[in-house]
Amino acid sequence: MFDKLDFILEKYEELSMKVSEPEVINNQPLWQKHIKEMGEMEPIVNSYREYKKAKNELSEAKELLEMESDPELRELAKMEIDPLEEKIGKLEEELKILLLPKDPNDEKNVILEVRAGTGGEEAALFGQDLLRMYMRYAERHRWKTEVIELNDTGIGGIKEAVVMIKGKGAYSRLKYESGVHRVQRVPETESGGRVHTSAATVAVLPEVDDVEVEVNPNDVRVDVYRSSGNGGQSVNTTDSAVRLTHIPTGLVVTCQDEKSQIKNKDKAFKVLKARLYDLKLQEQTDEISAERKAQVGSGDRSERIRTYNFPQGRVSDHRIGLTLYKLGQILDGELEEIIDSLITHEQAEKMKNF
């Protein structure tokens, strides 16, 4: 571990010198590449420097305790040792976590999809609750949200919604939300007061660029049609809505949020690329089953990950056995406690194989 830390520190200091060289400053792409590398290494470098400083201070305190005969100075040295040993222990754990393999998609924007599952209109209403929850969560983080597709039921529910969420670290936190979300509550239409169980599926996909996913235009059928709102009423008088069909996989993406056909086509292609990239990731994670077991954010769409129980006011995450009695706050976008717990659990699992 410390050989690796020494190497990172040496590399960081080398880059620090390079970015001030005139030939690098004048080569903007190279300068930006070095600055980005330094930014990625900086948290590790700062912690390691702090660790080395604490180790030196501990060594000096122990040396003083051995060599010094003055009772007062010996007492001062003793008082320094325990806090320094505690600090060093914490920094060691912090460095282990910082050295864990990073998900290359963590800093990417997110394409979030919510679909009503079993439960008819009640499932559609729950889908709307989930969509609002994620929009509120994004708002709390000051992330930008953009609706790409919204297929509503006309009475407050949604059959399907696709939203782009843009912001630093959006995928690193939202990736744990992929899976089946279950709700238990009494529907407004239920006169007998019986609790019904419904479900909605959430998919969280990282936005990808053209380098990561290449789409052959000949493999995509593009259909344009007139956008329509509730009840089939025309929203647009031009054929601005776009439907893409990826022939090799059968994936279909629609977008009618914009009045411009070009903008709708651009958004639809972003979603298509994200879905194709997700298929590629699923194939890779299926091949590495042992690693997948260690990751709570496996993205398995069929896995029931969480239950929202309205009569008891509780939310239970089944992957880590976490139950919180704050249903209202969670549905209002207060997801920090759940997501932090999921991240901690995943880090602990990875640490076992560190």
Helix content: 40-55%
Radius of gyration: 26 Å
Name the shape in a single word: flat
Biggest beta sheet summary: 8 strands, mixed
| Separation of the first and last Cα atoms | 10 Å
| Cross-sheet strand order for the largest sheet | 2-3-1-5-4-9-10-11
Q: How would you sum up this structure, described in words?
A:
By secondary structure, this protein is an alpha+beta fold. The protein is 48% helix and 21% strand. It has ten helices and eleven strands. It has helices at 2-18, 22-25, 28-67, 71-99, 120-140, 170-174, 261-287, 289-293, 327-331, 336-352, and strands at 110-116, 144-152, 158-166, 179-185, 196-206, 220-225, 241-246, 251-255, 304-309, 314-317, 322-324. It has an eight-stranded mixed sheet. A hairpin with a 4-residue loop joins strand 9 and strand 10 (314-317). Helix 1 crosses helix 3 and helix 3 runs antiparallel to helix 4 (71-99). The longest helix has 40 residues, at 28-67.
